[in-house]
Amino acid sequence: MDLDRALAFSRYAERTLLAHPALRDELVATLDAPFDWGAADRGLDEALVGGDCAMLEERLRWLRRRVFLHTLARDLTARATFAEVVQTMTALAERALRDATELHARTLQETYGTPLGGSSGAPQRLIVVAMGKLGGGELNVSSDVDPVFM
């Protein structure tokens, strides 16, 4: 199926491209390959290094939009396997959880100090455990995320 016909099946794609027309050029240029995480990682890393929560939130929303559009287009045009779709969605969720947790934990630590174990007195880290499809690496575009924070 060609790209225009495939995108017509998705209201999400139509609305996204209407709101962000430049994404169409990016999509056409990258459609034949799985999502390239290199550029995405650099943009998120910049927000992490700068400690800018608002920038990270904005870049995560932008990344989600790009990943969803790219993945659904590859899926609808039969360029992506099911394994690629779930791996891409899982990678997106893992990156978002990791970066948001890291930045917010650092911000809280700067304000309140390093959390210490009640008995051990040792520094403690926030741990995020993924349950369900995310934990199994099988997240799809309609899956919810069930993290447990410890």
Write structural notes for this entry.
The protein is mainly alpha-helical. The protein has one domain (3-114). Helix content is 64%, strand content 5%. The chain contains 7 helices and 2 strands; from the N terminus they run ααααααβαβ. The protein has helices spanning 3-7, 11-19, 22-30, 37-50, 53-76, 82-112, 132-135; strands at residues 128-131, 146-149. It has a two-stranded antiparallel ribbon. The radius of gyration is 18 Å and the shape is elongated. The model has no long low-confidence stretch (mean pLDDT 91).
Write the layout of secondary structure elements.
Elements: H1 3-7, H2 11-19, H3 22-30, H4 37-50, H5 53-76, H6 82-112, E1 128-131, H7 132-135, E2 146-149
Antiparallel strand pairs: 1-2
Helix pairs in contact: 4-5, 5-6
State the distance separating the first and last CA atoms: 46 Å
Gross morphology is: elongated
- Helices and strands, in order, run as HHHHHHEHE
Radius of gyration from CA coordinates: 18 Å
Helix/strand structural class: mainly alpha
Number of helices: 7
Tell me the count of domains.
1
Q: What's the arrangement of strands in the largest beta sheet?
A: 1-2
* Number of strand segments: 2
Tell me about the largest β-sheet: 2 strands, antiparallel
β content, as a range? 5-15%
The chain-level mean pLDDT equals: 91
Uncertain ranges: none
The portion of residues assigned to helices is: 55-70%
